[in-house]
Specification:
TIM Barrel, alpha/beta
């Protein structure tokens, strides 16, 4: 959808920050679009390799329809090369490597309606890689009264991002750190992600931020503090921030799991900076996997991993003190 033709049937993709220039017969960095005589084709359109029904908490989205299910789609391909990726079998695969399912947009929406699932989510790999499919499903789903959510690395260029946000209810963005070192680990850049975060907020969409804390890569307390200060200043104190525990995977199997105390320290820093909704993920049963009211301090939503055991938000307010809790509650 977003590319321009160059001389000699070359094209330049304009979907993400990489702005790949692709020769005839070639593919971009994400490996899922191909230049065919000056026209750029998606090789994964309506061909997801992963289709699942998940709890919305898995995204994670903690302030959107707690306890409900989401219908999730993912394909192969990604425009990052995260050395820690736990979905590397999808994100680092190419078209033809894995089995796919034939699910055109109409079928995706039909499945959600038939199973009474209120939200469709695009996740597992980077939605930018299958943007054309995400967009068409989103347009149709919104016309049928469904919600749209996607989990992204935050690398879309502004024009495609703003167009997709017209048909989006909520976004989860991975902020992989606040240093060049953190983004070198993903063969990517920080600035496009910060730009995306600000655009999502400016467009009035519900936004939650995830920071996977990886030992030696992005766990320096001073960097975490700078990140939290940026979030408060640019996205607001009510933006939920999830600190997630890393486990050895893909090309970082030599690193240990994140110490729980490191996550708790990050949680303390975020609260000290003034963020209101800070949680710890990938530590089932941890106290701060739950959400607490910023005013009265009582537990609003009691979670154990991805399961909601108690929800004390009533009409968008704390049941105990009446404090307004931002999010999508119905």
């Amino acid at each position: 959808m977003f590319y321009r033709k160059l001389e000699g049937n070359w094209i330049q993709c304009e979907t993400c920050f990489r702005m790949c220039t692709v020769p005839p017969g070639g593919r971009g960095f994400c490996r899922v679009r191909e230049n065919r005589e000056g026209r750029y084709y998606s090789l994964v359109y309506a061909r997801p390799s992963a289709v699942h029904i998940d709890p919305i908490e898995k995204e994670p989205q903690y302030h959107m329809l707690p306890g409900t299910e989401i219908l999730c789609f993912g394909t192969v391909g990604c425009n990052f090369r995260c050395r820690h990726c736990h979905n590397w079998h999808l994100s680092q695969a190419s078209p033809g490597d894995l089995e796919t399912y034939d699910i055109p947009p109409e079928r995706a929406v039909e499945i959600a309606l038939k199973k009474n699932i209120p939200t469709l989510s695009f996740t597992y790999n980077e939605p930018t890689a299958f943007y054309e499919y995400v967009y068409d499903v989103a347009v149709l789903a919104k016309s049928k009264g469904l919600r749209i959510l996607w989990h992204s690395n935050g690398s879309m260029n502004p024009e495609p991002l703003k167009r997709l946000l017209r048909y989006t209810d909520a976004v989860t963005i991975d902020l992989k750190g606040f240093t060049k070192k953190a983004y070198d680990n993903s063969s990517a850049e920080l600035e496009p992600v910060l730009r995306t975060l600000k655009i999502v907020k400016q467009e009035g969409k519900w936004l939650e931020v995830v920071n996977l804390v990886i030992p030696t890569i992005n766990d320096d307390p001073s960097d975490i503090r700078r990140m939290c200060e940026w979030i408060k200043e640019n996205l607001g104190e009510d933006t939920p921030l999830h600190f997630s525990r890393f486990f050895p995977n893909y090309r970082l199997i030599h690193l240990p799991p994140t110490p729980i105390r490191t996550l708790e320290k990050a949680h303390e820093i975020a609260l000290d900076v003034g963020l209101h909704y800070v949680t710890i993920g990938n530590v089932p049963g941890h106290k701060y996997n739950s959400t607490f009211c910023p005013r009265c301090g009582k537990r609003l939503i009691y979670r154990v991993h991805f399961q909601v055991l108690e929800n004390n938000v009533r009409n968008g307010r704390c049941k105990f003190c009446g404090y307004s809790i931002p999010g999508i509650w119905e």
